[in-house]
Design a protein that fits this description.
This protein has 13 helices and 8 strands. The chain is of the alpha+beta class and 383 residues long. It starts with a helix and ends in a 10-residue tail after the last strand.
Length: 383
């Protein structure tokens, strides 16, 4: 047993290189993954197995589960990482471990360090590694789907509420011009709801590493912002203010996604701001980009929470989780929207000045058409 541990320590790089070469040949998804991401947990897993082999001298305790639990953490991280890597499936994750088992066996046999006891250690350690990785992979994909479905359901409330408010405001004695305005508002809101339902269907069939679709087109951003401002003024009791010195800010954006960003900024500003203070929307046009800011007065967001708020898969506990989840449910896609437009995000929050969420978007980064964009993952269980 000790000899096997020593051989694995000395031959670590050889094993990793052999594994990488075989994986590239046998697993299609590996060719779309960087070398660092491909190997991710494998060096740590080798160290874990080496320690297990070195520690176990009594054959009777080799099968005890407690001796294999140290592989848990790295294999959980591996499964989560693969869930955000393009094209991976459960079969391909299992194949990675089968190849790893085969190469470890080959190397140990070449060095005359393989025995029945060593074989059992490898078997049990790698069976547990497979279980941990596949479980984390499946759970992460399911969590992604649930989060996306929750976000879309959350985002549907704004356009549906706007359509309802518009229809409810119809009176028999209103003039034709007023009725046309209400009709246009209701139609626009319901069209957005239909687009969100399409996104909901995409979320249900989400596969590993797919990200989400964005549909880019050239349009005047000021018109979209003005529509959202008018709808928000109808829906919320707070005074909503719009400051925009331009009548036209033309660029190539995903209209639906930018609309969702602004709607969520506004809804959070109302929800977490003071009810008797206005919510302000500011649009600033620059040569290559445009900035949208939403400001409210209310309890500030701590610096720690500001760093976490745009991550997609936060796993938190207690009151902090409720606060993050409340903000993050609507804001989880904001980072993806910003990145897809080569933009930036900023949060400023303090007791005196209130809270401002800002997104800056590049006007000419994209060409019209659809493309998939990655989501911004976080798997820190200790947030």
């Amino acid at each position: 047993m000790r000899k096997a541990a020593e051989i694995l320590k000395l031959q670590k790089e050889k094993v990793l290189n052999m594994w990488e070469e075989s994986v590239k040949k046998e697993i299609k998804a590996s060719n779309f993954t960087s070398r660092i991401a491909l190997r991710d947990h494998l060096p740590h897993l080798m160290d874990d197995i080496n320690r297990i082999i070195h520690r176990l001298e009594n054959f009777d305790v080799i099968k005890d589960k407690e001796h294999y639990e140290e592989v848990y953490e790295h294999c959980i991280q591996h499964g989560r990482q693969r869930s955000s890597s393009s094209g991976y499936t459960v079969d391909q994750i299992l194949r990675e471990y089968i190849i790893f088992h085969r190469i470890l066996t080959e190397v140990l046999m070449e060095e005359d360090a393989y025995s029945t006891e060593v074989g059992i250690v490898l078997k049990y350690a790698l069976e547990n590694a497979m279980l941990f990785s596949v479980s984390a992979f499946s759970n992460s994909l399911q969590e992604m789907r649930q989060k996306l479905i929750g976000i879309l359901a959350h985002d549907m409330r704004n356009p549906i509420s706007a359509a309802y408010m518009a229809i409810s405001s119809i009176e028999h004695d209103q003039g034709k011009e007023r009725l046309e305005v209400i009709k246009k508002m209701a139609k626009s809101s319901l069209n957005r709801s239909l687009d969100l339902i399409e996104g909901l269907l995409d979320s249900i069939t989400l596969q590993a590493g797919e990200g989400i679709f964005m549909d880019f087109s050239e349009f005047n951003l000021v018109e979209s912002v003005s529509t959202i401002y008018q709808e928000a003024s109808q829906i919320y009791s707070n005074e909503i203010r719009l400051e925009c010195g331009e009548e036209e800010v033309v660029g190539v954006f995903d209209k639906m996604m930018v609309t969702r960003v602004l709607e969520n900024f506004i809804s959070n500003a109302v929800k977490y701001g003071e009810w008797n203070k206005p919510v302000s929307i500011l649009v600033e046009n620059f040569q290559e980009s445009v900035s949208i800011r939403v400001h409210n007065q209310g309890e500030p967001i701590s610096e720690e929470r500001q760093k976490e708020i745009f991550y997609f898969l936060n796993t938190t506990n207690g009151d902090k989780a409720m606060e993050l989840r409340s903000y993050g449910m609507g804001l989880a896609l904001v980072k993806a929207v910003s990145d897809a437009h080569s933009g930036s995000l900023e949060i400023k929050s303090n007791k005196k000045e209130g809270t401002t969420f800002s997104i800056t978007l590049n006007k000419a980064k994209n060409s019209p058409g659809k493309k998939r964009v990655a989501l911004n993952f976080s798997y820190n269980d200790n947030l």
